[in-house]
């Protein structure tokens, strides 16, 4: 299985500052069809996960433009600019290029 | 609006079967793919499998001998059955929809159902 390594495990950020989360995969996530099936989710306390980013860098409908995804191959980053209180929760990366699909271990964002 | 809702017993005895239902409103399960994901105590998430718009399925090999995902299109529901459960199957179980434009990612999720395996 593809191992998704997320760092850091937890992150404490002051309101208005930027947060950056790294996700590294044990194999390239570039599919033979040319797509990179890497998505990012946020699970807020007491809620289900919600989609933020798909295909590595495409923001899902309704997601704030403060969220941006980048990266290719095995190295991916989620950046959150101007962190707001509602951004707290656990962030996950998820790959669907290789079967079985696998999640990262999660990064907990706390507000300082 | 697309909505998904999981239902099923919150407590299952070891060696028994876990059966969950995902009821979908606002969208037909004969379109898209539909998945089951679980979150263990702590933060670990696991993709369990999916059923497609045509009824074909794909399962996580780690579960392959124990898992079955089926559907009832007349009720717009799909189901998860996990056999021979152990305490390690204690988790919150989510059903979710694969998006069409958001390829290979889950755009709608149920609220989740917590299942405890214990005697």
Describe the protein.
- The complex is a heterodimer of chains A (112) and B (119).
- With 112 residues, chain A is mainly beta.
- Chain A is built from no helices and eleven strands.
- In chain A, the strands form two sheets. In chain A, strands 2, 4, 5, 6, 9, 10 and 11 form a seven-stranded mixed sheet that branches.
- Chain A is globular, with a radius of gyration of 13 Å.
- Chain A starts with a strand and ends with a strand.
- In chain B, strands 2, 4, 5, 6, 9, 10 and 11 form a seven-stranded mixed sheet that branches. A four-stranded antiparallel sheet of chain B has the order 1-3-8-7, with no helix packed on it.
- Chain B is globular and about 40 Å long.
- The chains are: A mainly beta (112), B mainly beta (119).
- Chain A binds chain B through residues 35, 37, 39, 41, 47-51, 54-55, 58, 60, 90, 92, 94, 96-97, 99-103, 105-106, 108, and chain B through 43-47, 58, 60-62, 94, 99, 102-107, 109-112.
pLDDT average of chain A, as an integer? 97
Through-space gap between termini of chain B: 39 Å
Encode the helix/strand succession of chain B as letters.
EEEEEEEEEEE
**Which assembly state applies to the chains in this document?**
heterodimer
Summarize the helix and strand pattern of chain A as letters: EEEEEEEEEEE
Q: What's the β-strand tally of chain B?
A: 11
How many β-strands of chain A, per DSSP? Answer: 11
Shape of chain B: globular
What is the end-to-end distance of chain A? 36 Å
Provide keyphrases for this structure.
heterodimer; A: 112 residues; mainly beta; B: 119 residues; 7-stranded mixed beta sheet; 4-stranded antiparallel beta sheet; 11 strands
Write the layout of secondary structure elements.
The complex is a heterodimer of chains A (112) and B (119).
Chain A (H helix, E strand, L loop, with lengths): L3 E4 L2 E4 L5 E7 L12 E6 L5 E6 L3 E2 L7 E6 L2 E6 L8 E7 L6 E2 L3 E5 L1
Parallel strand pairs in A: 2-11
Antiparallel strand pairs in A: 1-3, 3-8, 4-5, 4-9, 5-6, 7-8, 9-10, 9-11
Chain B lengths: L2 E5 L3 E2 L5 E8 L8 E6 L5 E7 L5 E3 L7 E6 L4 E6 L8 E8 L7 E4 L3 E5 L2
Parallel strand pairs in B: 2-11
Antiparallel strand pairs in B: 1-3, 3-8, 4-5, 4-9, 5-6, 7-8, 9-10, 9-11
């Amino acid at each position: 299985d593809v191992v998704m390594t997320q760092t850091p495990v937890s992150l404490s950020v002051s309101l208005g500052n930027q947060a950056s989360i790294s996700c590294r995969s044990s194999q390239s996530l570039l599919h033979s069809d040319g797509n990179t099936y890497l998505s990012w989710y946020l699970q807020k306390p007491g809620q289900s996960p919600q989609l933020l980013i798909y295909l590595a860098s495409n923001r899902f409908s309704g997601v704030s433009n403060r969220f941006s995804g980048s990266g290719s191959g095995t190295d991916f980053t989620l950046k959150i600019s101007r962190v707001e209180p509602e951004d707290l929760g656990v962030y996950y990366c998820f790959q669907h290029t290789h079967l079985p699909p696998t999640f990262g271990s999660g990064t907990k964002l706390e507000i300082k | 609006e697309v909505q998904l809702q999981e239902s099923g017993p919150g407590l299952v005895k070891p060696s028994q079967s876990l059966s969950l239902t995902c009821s979908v409103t606002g969208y037909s399960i004969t379109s898209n793919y539909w998945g089951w994901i679980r979150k263990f105590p702590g933060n670990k998430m696991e993709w369990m499998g999916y059923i497609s718009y045509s009824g074909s399925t794909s399962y996580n090999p780690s579960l392959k001998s124990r898992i079955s995902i089926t559907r009832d299109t007349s009720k717009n529901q799909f189901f998860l059955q996990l056999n021979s459960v152990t305490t390690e199957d204690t988790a919150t179980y989510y059903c979710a929809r694969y998006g069409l434009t958001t390829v290979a990612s889950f755009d709608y999720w149920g609220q989740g159902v917590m299942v405890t395996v214990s005697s």
